[in-house]
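INTERNAL AUDIT FORM
Audit reference: QA-55
Scope: verify that the stored structure record matches its stored sequence.
Auditor: D.O.
Record contents follow.
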Amino acid sequence: MASTPERVMLSVPVYVDEDDLRFDETFVKSVCRTKPKTESCPPPAVVLPFTVRIARTETHLSQAVRVRWQSYSRTLPHLAEALRDPEPADTADHNIVLVAEDKSTGVPVGSMRIETNFGGSHFLDRWFHLPDQFSNRTVAWVTRLAVQSGATGRLAKLAIFKALYRYCLATQIDWITVGSVPPLDRQYIRLGFQPIFPEGKLVPMPGNPDIPQRMLAFDVIRAEQVWREQDHPFYQFIVRDYCPDILVFSSLSGAWSTPRDRQLPPPPPKSLEDAFGFTIV
């Protein structure tokens, strides 16, 4: 019977210098308030024309399916007919569907499904021999990305990716993977995805062997460092900006316990031009 590895406890000696326990009066006066701050100063926020949330109801899911069918009708019409109704994977354990909804009209403007390997092998692992870097790692398989055409759809795509990135960080996902048909794969490569297979070679998609796809992966853990070092144009929005309209973790906000007449006003808006450094058109 294999023995259990012993836990190694590091013993770090602690030395306390009595002089370190004395206040530096000049420093204390510079950092301490004489009275507690009473005014509210919420952080500046990027206010979007839509919300992004996890589909938790049949209504939310029907919105996701609606924009999915519309988008695929434009880009892959031969697949669109099969996407008029929800798929089993939409409500499977350990999967979620993100849906972006216009705040003024309630019309869905974007959607994405995130499948994880928390409950077992993920899609790629079941069908392909993957490089060792994906072994024993938490992986999200992203599929059914769909957005409305036009400027709103392009912005929704970025906001959905921001929600995806934040969700994966919070749930300890190591890799985000996706399969995309060229030239649509460029949108993922621009965000920092890298080919999974050598030279970015195309592979047949199970269930649709006539549709060659490029399999791509995104390193969630290293992404912030890579984007920052590259001065990536989306670094500010995806990593740093506060977007209250991204409601992926709304159930954790505690807002339900605060009466509406005592809830804080929304934070001051930050224009999209300021957020991205260029005009979204």
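Auditor finding: record pair retrieved intact. The beta strands are 45-46, 50-54, 95-102, 108-116, 139-147, 175-180, 194-195, 203-205, 208-219, 269-270.
Action required: none
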